[in-house]
Amino acid sequence: QVRLFNAKGQFLRMAKADEVEFSVQGPGKISKRVLPGGGKGWEYATPKSLAHTSVGVTAKFGKLVGSARIRLVPDYNWKFDFSDGQVPVSWVGCRYRHIALDYDLFKKVEKENPLAGQLYIYLMTSFTNSNNPAVTTGKAPQVYNDGSPRRTWSAMLRFLGLLGQVKTVDDAKAKLDPSLAILTREKFVAKHAWSAPKGGVQLAVTRGGRKVDGNGVMVKIKTIPKGARSQGWMGFIDGSNYTIQSDVLGATKDKKQPDIGLTAQRYTLTMLGAGQELQIRTWPTQLRMAKTIPFTWEPNKWYTMKLEARVLPGADGKSSRAVLKGKVWVRGEKEPDKWQVEAIDEVPNVKGSPGLFGNAIDAEIFYDNITVTKGK
After folding, report:
1. Quick one: pLDDT at residue 277?
2. 356 pLDDT more than 90
3. 341 shares a domain with 290
4. How much is the pLDDT for 184?
5. DSSP symbol at 153
6. Which of 159, 177, 207 finishes a domain?
7. Could you say which of 103, 186, 261, 276 has the lowest number of CB atoms within 10 Å?
8. pTM for the structure as a whole
């Protein structure tokens, strides 16, 4: 349907099918069809082979043009390994807050110079989330300075733990040039340039041609504004009876660890960093049905998390209840036979999208090999 409005934003009427021309940017097609009550309409048909992506739809009414986007989400089972260097565009609340990077490259440069590893994470996030496509594609530099309210130079220093240590361009060169040289050698950075506008420090970095060609992972960094503690969703709002699993790693900054969580059917299994606990809950503000157990986990170590959500008959045989089960183990080791934490909600959420929860205010969170499988 196409709604028509005047210049004041006031609704006028619905456009007739014959008055509108549609076009599709992406898979699938739009064609006219006869409506059940007669008359004509338009219908979008998905492709036979679905993937997690989006489709642009453009509508032309005379000289007016409007656009919209359709999320394509296939049925379960799903698997995401981020080897293409992308966070799926069909996910809600995940892009920008998370970016994909090359974990092999990260560990390589981190081993050579820990600051180079942190700079790689920061620059990859900055390039990916830039509003300027020329910056993202390496055709223009990303500029860091304190000449605007965003104070992008200070933000970078804060993330790198250098705030207060760098006052001049010479200080900046001494601290960052060795790391920039490593990233340039690895072809992640094409070039960089220093300057001193109005006595301050400015760094301009141009992205190199290197893509994610090693083990792709997804990371959520601690400096994302308005999103370091947040949720994201992958698919159907009416999903139920499925299992979500992911490899996860929590970094450490200033001896603090993040909270890492998986979401299923509006319930979350969370590895709590500060409390060193494992928890199933539905709403962190009010833990009405939550189950929490002690669980010691180490920073900078990969684990596998698994959360199962099921809707089963209630005790009276008439109502329903949600049964949640979770477990975590060191990645690569044998999966435990028993669930470590279980919770029952007699006032259940019976539907909800698979997703992620993360509190990266204290340190970064890494995800890899996310799967969602149908329940038996």
Report:
1. 97
2. yes
3. yes
4. 98
5. H
6. 207
7. 276
8. 0.92
